[in-house]
Amino acid sequence: MANSTGKAPPDERRKGLAFLDELRQFHHSRGSPFKKIPAVGGKELDLHGLYTRVTTLGGFAKVSEKNQWGEIVEEFNFPRSCSNAAFALKQYYLRYLEKYEKVHHFGEDDDEVPPGNPKPQLPIGAIPSSYNYQQHSVSDYLRQSYGLSMDFNSPNDYNKLVLSLLSGLPNEVDFAINVCTLLSNESKHVMQLEKDPKIITLLLANAGVFDDTLGSFSTVFGEEWKEKTDRDFVKVSYVD
């Protein structure tokens, strides 16, 4: 929420903008998009500040149960002439933020349930027919709020080659080495090692050549794989 000068600090503004982007995407995915930010008393409503305050107090249901909307209004410095501000806040929260709160604050499934047709409850021990992948998604708003990294690595085919070389499975390793061999030959496709430099280290490790840096693959290739597969990868590499 804004400070006494009416302007939010830069950090708060960034979080607020990220929150609005996330909120718009949420409503767009549910078929309830919005463009304009609602206003109360001629003042644009700080949806991020409202959401933060309400969830701090336990969420929409608890705030409504304890009738705390009047207390929240005082923190927004609305004009005194706006006598219905508490009612407006509650209605706007219900329209824009209540469903978002259920999914992103309480971790509930984002399933629309028609009135009078409650969602069937699964019996204890039953396996749902679909998996809620949303529970693993961390929004940009939450990442910024908790100081998490915003730098993401885009997966590519070279990452798959690295995983194949790391697997220790003969078919996977042979496949990865064959692909690397083909890409190393003169053709319209070239091997782009900069996309995952670990490929060189792993190719050398498969040939029994290890570096001395921390986290060397010598332990994996020389000890762990030998113990679990009864195959001496280092010896095979040197013999070949």
UniProtKB/TrEMBL annotation:
* PROSITE patterns referenced in this protein's UniProt entry, alphabetically: ARID (PS51011)
- At the top level of its lineage, which domain of life is listed? Eukaryota
Instruction: Spell out the SMART domains in the cross-references.
Output: ARID, BRIGHT
**Which intervals of the chain form a coiled coil?**
none
List, for all copies, the residue spans of the domain called ARID: 13-105
The protein depicted here goes by the name AT-rich interactive domain-containing protein 2-like
Cite a single Pfam family from the UniProt record: ARID
Q: Which CDD domains match?
A: ARID_ARID2
Q: Where are the transmembrane segments?
A: none
State if Transmembrane helix is listed as a keyword: no
Alphabetic keyword roster? Nucleus, Transcription, Transcription regulation
- PANTHER family found in the cross-reference section: AT-RICH INTERACTIVE DOMAIN-CONTAINING PROTEIN 2 (PTHR22970)
